[in-house]
Structure formats: C-alpha cells, structure tokens
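To start, an entry.
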Amino acid sequence: MWQLAAKLTSRLPAELAHNLTIQALRLGLAPVASKLLLPTKIAGMAFENPVGLAAGFDKNAEAYVGAFRLGFGCVEVGTITPLPQMGNPRPRVFRLTADDAVINRYGFNSKGMRVAAAHLSSRSAKHGILGVNIGANKLSQDKAADYHKSAAHLSRFADYLTVNLSSPNTPGLRDLQHEEGLRACLQAAFDGRDEAGGPKAGRPPIFVKLAPDLDAVELFRSMDIALDCGISGFILTNTTTSRPASLFSALKDEAGGLSGQPLTSLALQKIAEAAKHLRGSGQPAALIGVGGIGSAEQAYARLLAGADLVQLYTALALQGPLMVADLLAGLRAMMKADGLSTIADVKQAGLSAKQAVRHASHVAIESAKLHSDN
C-alpha cells in the first residue's frame, strides 16, 4: 500500500507531493518500521542506528514524530529561520526522474523559530535523536545575529544544533563558510546556545553543514576554523550548484541545488577528504555523510570512508517510506558479511573514496549471496 501511495504522489507536482507527505506523517499516516538496532555514539549522543533524515524535509518541525516511525535513528528538522519567510517563487523544486535527482531552490521557506518551537515543545523523550538546523533570513542585514537568535530560541529543544551556511538558495550565505564570516556565525550560535541552555545537561553540541563545492583547501581551512570555535562535527554535504555532464533531464539547467544520485561521488569524496584531514589533525569531530545516498551499498561506502552517520532525503522522496527499513536491513547484512559488529568498526577502515566504493560493491555481492543461501 505504501509503495502504491509513493507511486501516486510521484505523479503530483514535487512541492505538492512533499507537502502532502508532511501532513500524512504529521497525522500518523505512515508505516511503522520494525526496530532495527545498529547503535552508535557520537558527540555524547546515543543513536539507535546510523541512518538519519536530513534537514530540508521537515522544515517547520511538524512531522518529526511520523518520520521517526519510518525507522530513522535521528531526524534533523529545518532549516528554521528567526522570522517567517516565504522562500523563493514557485515553481522551486524539480524532479529529474531520469537522473534519480532533484533540483530545489526553496530558499529557506520557513514559518519561523516561534512556530517551530511550539511544535517542538510537545516532543516526547521516547523519540530518537533530534537535530535542529538553523539558518539566516534572506533580507537580514546581520546574518550572524540570526544564528544567535535561533540558537537561543531553539537549543533547549534540540539534541544537537546544525548551523547551515551552505544552502545555495540564499544570496551570500555560502560566503559565510569562510574565514571571519564562518567564525562570526559559529560564535553567535554558541553564544545563543549558552545563553538559553538545552535538554538534560544543558548545552547541545553544534555541527556545521558545508557545501560539496568547496575544494579540498577551502574545506580544510573551514574545518580548522570551525574546530577552533569548538564545533562537534561536520555535515557533508549540502546540495551542489554544479551540473555533471551525465545529466539527462530537460530540467537539468534549472537554478538551485542538485541532490540525489548525481551528487553521490562528490559527497563521498568530501567525507573521505574530511576524515583524512581529521585523522591528520588529531582533533576529534563527528562526520555525518549526506548527499546521493539511496542504497545500503552507498551508505556503507560513506561509513567506510569515515562517516559516523549518514542522512538522506531525496531517496526517501523518490523511493518511498519503506526504503529506510530496507536500507538498514541491507546495512546490517553488509556488516555481517564483512565480519563487523559496530558502526565504529566500519568507520575504522578509513578508506579512500574509490576504495570505499569498491569494497562496498564487493560486500554487497557477498551479503546477497549469504542471503540467498539462507
């Protein structure tokens, strides 16, 4: 039934389908996945499994309870701005069906931090790890101040905060990934968090989400600044403004951020680069891999390259709600075929991007053989 529903919504305009899915999850109209535990810990947080829902799906923290029911170990809501804003004019999201991809230029359409806080205030502790992704208003003259406001208002509801500086759809935002802009925005978020407090111990860890379009030198410099500010981890990556030559869809030249399968190799490469840089620096920080993850094999490659967790969004939209449980089952089977028992064991491999792809492909074949033999 659920796959049929996903097929029917795929025939609707993309944004309408997204909004209907949010309302269905909000109302509890979603499959309930069987618990599949692959526990792991990062930044002092215990996750039931390493697969999370990326920001951009539940923009206003309306449907996170329903999202957890699908089997996610964590759900990241947002991006949430201090003031309500409409985002960019419609149409602003486009399916590239032939490419298993999406282009969006939503532009942080948000009901604002006060509405999100009202939704989050009723959260039950029985739900999994909840991240809150914060951004700046498009017309703000002081974007660092926006991160301070949102962190101060929302941190008490969050298990972790994510500072989003990498959306390509807010003019000038990506410039804040560098040097003093980065330092100012992160410090503002820390100050806001510290003023407000948070759950239990009081102060949720802060992550920063960066773009895939940074070259290695830019990425490492931004990471070093963020680490100096006290960041607990990096979410790599956001959508890309690049357009691979392999794209087939007639919509490929629409403005906005590209997500889905064409982003897989680029996002994997950034995780591998970041993991190597962290190993060289000796500084502990979590890595969350996102971008073009649509299968257990692709998730496993991201973990082999150094990610602690993975997140997805586009694959959920294109494949339907049952894919989360399927991905987790496949991930467990691959770990078993590899003789590994924990996510930390997988990450310990520290493979390059190319090595991770080759090894994940090999293990996918082996785990399929084991399944067929049983």
Q: What stands out?
A: The domain at 2-373 is CATH 3.20.20.70 (TIM Barrel).
